[in-house]
Design brief:
By secondary structure, the chain is of the alpha+beta class. It has a domain at 101-181: Dna Ligase, domain 1, CATH 3.30.1490.110. The chain has helices at 64-81, 119-136, 181-193, 204-212, 215-220, 252-260, 266-276, 306-329, 350-355, 385-400, 411-428, and strands spanning 14-23, 27-35, 41-50, 56-57, 60-61, 90-95, 101-116, 140-152, 155-157, 166-180, 197-203, 222-227, 232-238, 241-248, 289-293, 301-305, 337-341, 362-364. The strands form 6 sheets. It has a 5-stranded mixed β-sheet with strand order 14-13-12-17-18, sandwiched between helices. The longest helix has 24 residues, at 306-329.
Length: 430
């Protein structure tokens, strides 16, 4: 996980392009940036497009053909926006979905005699960790496996062993996120069809921790509630590990559906929620009456009060948050803060609404620390936190693993690379 100290300086820039794509249930977003020497991000541009209905449900890709088209389209638009001559062929991706779960897995090796801890041993142990999960749960796949700690002959250390260290017994404890194997394969298939490599992928809770927390939060513990279009996710993090992650398959989309019962269209329900919505009726200051167009066959208009709209919103928010707050109660003594983020957290009174459900201080999460002070206002919006966190992780990954192969390379691209190699051999073999 990328680590960023709280400093926001400008300076010279590393012009190596970083591009991230966030595939959501309601829209797809892409952002390009470069990394400054001080660790902040220089955002080059961003594009967003509404997701085609039914293509992604509750964070899971359902129609790879539709998503494939949208990946190609949004990268073309992003490339044009930032003035690229060549197409974007490699991206970083945050993964989520309603079936995301967190596990802790221990892998042990008895080396019999004292031996150096070589990279190939650590790579093999990482693979064994993945295999343990996927052998036990046939329909599940490891989306992310990050080492929490290493034990060399029983002595714990949090940093990766170097090739100069020796031990007879090695144990690695991993923080593992798992999801549906079918979902992972559909993500890969969508990018394969678009002929785009996934250079590295992380789970959304991981990149949100990077984007929204500092060293004190990570040491003392915090919770992050991510309000999405069709899912609401709460993750609890402390001491370099996730204690808990739960995804509730409800989000802003479900609030819109509830408002639709008043005989208005889904699109109008979204506008009403965005422009006049409150998290609860107690926060309504001006209970005006809204007269809007009905979607009934006979046409006409519908009258809605702002207070009545807030009651419908509050009903769904309670349904989303009640199970999460019951679980949060179990961790209140272990953590210090609750941060809320995601597009759904922008409802008026949302922070106060969540605050009324817990004794912990609740704040809006901010990823501003990753951005230059001169960055455009839209880049600071909470719906961009996952993209910013992904780009921050990407910059750290590129610095630490400059020669690493991408996580996934489309088969079509592999074929042409091999053809290129053979062609080169023909013209140079003289």
């Amino acid at each position: 996980m990328a680590r960023k100290e709280k400093t926001r300086k400008n300076g010279g820039r590393d012009e190596s392009l970083l591009c991230a794509i966030d595939i959501g249930s309601s829209e797809i977003r892409a952002m390009a940036a470069t990394s400054n020497p001080d660790g902040t991000l220089h955002i080059l541009g961003m594009e967003s497009m509404p997701m085609k209905a039914g293509a992604v449900e509750r964070g899971l890709i359902m129609q790879t053909t539709d998503v494939n088209y949208m990946i190609r389209r949004i990268l073309l638009l992003l490339g044009n926006r930032i003035g690229l001559r060549n197409p974007i062929e490699s991206v970083f991706v945050p993964l989520g979905g309603k079936l995301l779960q967190v596990r802790q897995v221990s892998v042990k090796r008895d080396l019999i005699s004292s031996n150096y801890i070589l990279d190939k041993l650590l790579v093999a142990m990482h693979e064994e960790c993945r295999q343990k999960i996927e052998d036990r749960y046939n329909t599940m796949a490891v989306l992310s496996a990050e080492p929490l700690k290493y034990l060399l002959d029983g002595v714990e250390q949090t940093y990766r062993p170097t090739a100069t260290q020796k031990a007879k017994f090695v144990e690695v404890v991993y923080n593992v996120f798992v999801g549906k194997a079918d979902s992972r394969d559909k993500v890969k298939g969508s990018f394969d069809r678009a002929n785009v490599s996934i250079e590295k992928q992380w789970v959304r809770p991981d990149v949100l921790v990077s984007a929204l927390t500092d060293d004190d939060d990570r040491r003392d513990g915090c919770a992050i509630i991510d309000f999405g279009a069709q899912t609401t996710t709460m993750s609890i993090y402390k001491g370099d590990r996730f204690l808990y992650t739960r995804v509730v398959p409800l989000g802003g989309h479900d609030i819109n559906v509830n408002i639709q019962t008043q005989r208005v269209s889904f699109e109008l329900a979204e506008r009403l929620k965005t422009q006049f919505g409150y998290a609860a009726e107690d926060f309504v200051e001006d209970n005006r009456t809204l007269r809007v167009r009905s979607n009934a066959a006979e046409g006409g208009t519908v009258e809605l009060s702002v207070r009545g709209l807030a009651q419908m919103i509050q009903m769904k928010l309670n349904e989303m948050l009640d199970p999460l707050m019951k679980d949060l109660y179990e961790y209140e003594s272990e953590i210090g803060h609750v941060y809320i983020t995601g597009g759904g957290c922008k409802l008026s009174g949302m922070c106060e609404f969540v605050q009324a459900m817990t004794k912990l201080p609740v704040e809006y999460g901010s990823h501003a620390i990753w951005l230059e002070e001169s960055a455009d206002d839209e880049y600071f919006f909470p719906e961009n936190s996952a993209l910013i966190g992904t780009l921050g992780e990407a910059a750290e990954y590129r610095k630490n693993f400059p020669d690493e192969e991408p996580d996934t390379v489309p088969p079509f691209k592999k074929v042409w690379e091999k053809i290129g190699e053979k062609t080169l051999e023909i013209f140079t073999d003289q």
